[in-house]
Design brief:
715 residues, alpha+beta, five-stranded mixed beta sheet, three-stranded antiparallel beta sheet, 25 helices, 16 strands, 52% helix
């Protein structure tokens, strides 16, 4: 049923029901409901409800989504054309609410839409007779994303951009979308990227966390959905990296800056990925989760600033490459030792500064006493900098990994190198926190290019060794190794034991691909499958044996052996990635993803993905089998996957700031388990909860001091 058919049906049924007046029997007969005692309005409502619940025999979830699409179309027409919402949106919501808790059908929706409308109209009439009337101006809290998208589209229409609307979806016409990309790009170029970056980092200065050395730029949902559209800072900063110096004559007026922000913000709002109210992910089925994952990826690309604590970046790269023989020198003569020394010097010299900053060559010469000025310059130019042509030169569409014929190649390559080479011997950092990941990528690049199968043979093992050394340095003992069971050899990457818990850690070097970051749903699923799902499946196999009472005999690479048994303790399972996966590492998102995979089945009609999905099918079969066995062993009051985590190596290093042994490490780690702020940002929520704990502790100390003073006074 499309919107025109729905509105015609509503108008027809409302006219017919109005003719019935207040005759309850006639209203019930109109929908085929059971008669009730005279004057029993509650019974009449229940009788209509029974009919409404049976309208759709198959595909209730599909019908629910169709009704949601009708509501979105109504909101769009209300905002853009001024068409009335009432009573149509109330009736669409009424039908939608009766489809909750259903399932999908491969054969589509099987039911009587006309009867569904009849029941909705009749139910509304009974409520009016009870004294309950629909709001003339409906609350649009649940449709804030759609509403703001429509408002943005209306503003853009006034500037000549055209849109397509179909089934509740609002999208640019292709030519108009290309025009707005070009318009934003040209305006950033004429303003100057470094000037734009300075403005952005100045505006978000209050969000900076000195301990984590990052800006907390996150989602800002509220209970009432009353937030405003966010500025797509991630998108704008990538364009700033593309045009650092801009093109003369520069236009640096506040009006020009405001136009850039307004145009980019409206473009991002039309994408309809910004949440205004709290979202939940646990109850989504596989199809709904599929869509949610795509929206999460697009939001992160548009709005978030991928960051990494700079002092951790060099430590991570060094840890991964420890023991790996890398041939050199490279380029015109720089070595890996040069790259590490200069990187450490840049991280040290840039400490305490945020936003764009130029590299001080004289300062680097002082900080790198074993290197000549010439070798430092060579290392900056060849190992750590983008070419003078710049970063992100193929970036136009912010949510596409590859662009059209006229601009082919990866859209964003900014994170490959930390420095922008501006020519004339000038090198700039766009921002030290944003460039943290780029330091790792630049330092690992020579190994990846010169050592065959570096990622599969050395990368993952290097991450594992680096983490275990970092844990040990903070007093957190680990064990790990291979063990033999059921005729196969299994690898347990790392185990941390506390008095009450066995924490199983599985490490994957797999990163989120460019197509995954762009929201290409196939890539998102495959990226998550080869990171969190694969790691959680491996950890689940260890957990199953431990819960069966088995003792795992672990043998390390050096021959050291350990015995691991449960001994009445709980199990925590942790999938660890080398780089951050952004919002995908939120506990709600991760748990929702794992829940949805228990009923998921994937097929691909594209030959290029056949092998990938065959491997995914085998992995899913293992995952479902072991989880089904574990579920049968757990108490009924324990939620599935509540003990599962998806963290990154940089996140674990932040947690280690508060650790001096395994117990304190777990306490720091688990402190945010019971809270949900809707930001989908581990760093932000951990910092907020830590601040709350410190505030409570301070107030307790102040209270204790007051009590002590009062006692002394009494004495």
């Amino acid at each position: 049923m499309n919107l025109i058919e729905f509105k015609l049906s509503v108008d027809k049924q409302m006219a017919e029901v109005e003719l019935l007046g207040s005759d309850i029997d006639a209203i019930l007969a109109h929908v085929g409901a059971e008669r009730v005692e005279e004057g029993d309005l509650v019974g009449a409502a229940n009788s209509i409800e029974l009919v409404a619940q049976e309208v759709f025999a198959l595909g209730k979830t599909d019908a629910w989504e169709r009704c949601r699409g009708l509501c979105h179309e109504l909101v769009q027409r209300h905002v853009i054309e001024g068409e009335p919402l009432s009573p149509y949106i109330h009736l669409a919501e009424s039908i939608r609410d009766r489809c909750r808790g259903g399932s999908r059908s491969p054969d589509g929706i099987k039911g009587d839409w006309c009867l569904a409308v009849k029941c909705a109209v009749a139910g509304r009439k009974i409520r009016e007779m009870q004294g309950y009337h629909d709001l003339v101006e409906p609350m649009l809290i649940a449709y804030r994303t759609c509403e703001e998208g429509a408002r943005a589209a209306k503003r853009l229409m006034a500037w000549g951009f055209a849109f397509e609307r179909r089934g509740g979806e609002l999208r640019f016409q292709p030519e108009s979308e290309r025009r707005i990309w070009g318009a934003i790009d040209r305006k950033v170029q004429s303003f100057g990227g470094l000037a734009l970056a300075r403005h952005i980092f100045g505006a978000i200065a209050g969000s900076y966390d000195p301990a984590q050395e990052r800006h907390h730029v996150t989602r800002r949902p509220t209970d009432f959905g009353n937030g405003a559209p966010q500025e797509p800072l991630g998108y704008l900063l990538q364009l700033a990296a593309k045009h650092p110096l801009g093109r003369k004559p520069l236009r640096s007026s506040p009006q020009h800056l405001n136009r850039i922000i307004e145009l980019a913000t409206d473009y991002a709002a039309v994408m309809e990925v910004q949440p205004y109210v709290m979202q939940r992910f646990i109850d989504k089925d596989a199809v709904a989760m599929f869509q949610a994952l795509r929206e999460i990826a697009v939001y992160d690309t548009l709005f978030c600033l991928p960051q990494l604590r700079p002092r951790d970046a060099v430590e991570i790269a060094e840890g991964i490459l420890d023991g790996v023989q890398i041939p050199g020198p490279f380029g015109s003569g720089w070595t890996m030792a040069d790259a590490f020394e200069v990187s450490r010097a840049i991280v040290e010299s840039s400490a305490g500064r945020r936003g764009p900053q130029s590299i001080d060559m004289d300062d680097l010469v002082r900080r790198c006493p074993t290197m000549s000025r010439e070798s430092i310059f060579r290392t900056l130019r060849e190992a750590l900098s983008h070419p003078e042509t710049g970063a992100n030169q193929c970036l136009l569409n912010p949510v596409a990994a590859e662009l059209g014929v006229e601009l082919s190649g990866p859209g964003v390559d900014f994170f490959d190198r930390p420095l922008l080479n501006l020519g004339g011997g000038r090198f700039d950092l766009l921002d030290r926190s944003m460039c943290g990941t780029a330091f790792i990528n630049a330092l690992l690049a020579p190994a990846e290019s010169s050592i065959k199968d570096f990622g599969s043979k050395h990368g993952g093992a290097g991450v594992e060794r680096m983490l275990r050394r970092s844990l040990a340095a903070r007093g957190v003992k680990t064990k790990g190794g291979k063990y033999f069971a059921d005729g196969e050899t299994y690898d347990c990457d790392a185990v941390v034991e506390t008095a009450k818990r066995v924490i199983l850690i599985e490490v994957k070097k797999k990163a989120l691909t460019a197509t995954g970051r762009a929201g290409f749903d196939v890539s998102v699923v495959l990226d998550l499958a080869n990171s969190v799902l694969r790691a959680q499946t491996q950890a689940a196999q260890h957990e199953l044996r431990l819960r069966r009472g088995e003792t795992l005999k672990l043998t390390e690479e050096d021959g050291t052996t350990h015995e691991l048994s449960l001994d009445g303790r709980d199990v925590e399972r942790v999938a660890v990635s080398l780089p951050d996966f952004g919002s995908f590492q939120d506990r709600q998102v991760m748990m929702g993803f794992l829940h949805s995979q228990m009923e998921a089945e994937y097929r691909s009609s594209a030959p290029r993905y056949e092998d990938d999905f065959e491997k995914l099918a085998k992995l899913l079969a293992k995952f479902k089998k072991v989880e089904t066995q574990l579920h049968a062993m757990r108490p009924e009051n324990v939620a599935p996957f509540h003990h599962c985590w998806f963290l990154s190596a940089p996140q674990l290093l932040v947690l280690l700031d508060e650790a001096h042994d395994a117990e304190s490490f777990w306490q720091a780690w688990s402190s945010t388990r019971g809270i949900y702020m809707g930001t989908l940002d581990f760093y932000c929520e951990h910092a907020r909860f830590k601040a709350m704990k410190e505030q409570v502790a301070m107030e307790a100390m102040q209270g204790a001091a007051v009590v002590e003073v009062l006692v002394e006074v009494e004495k």
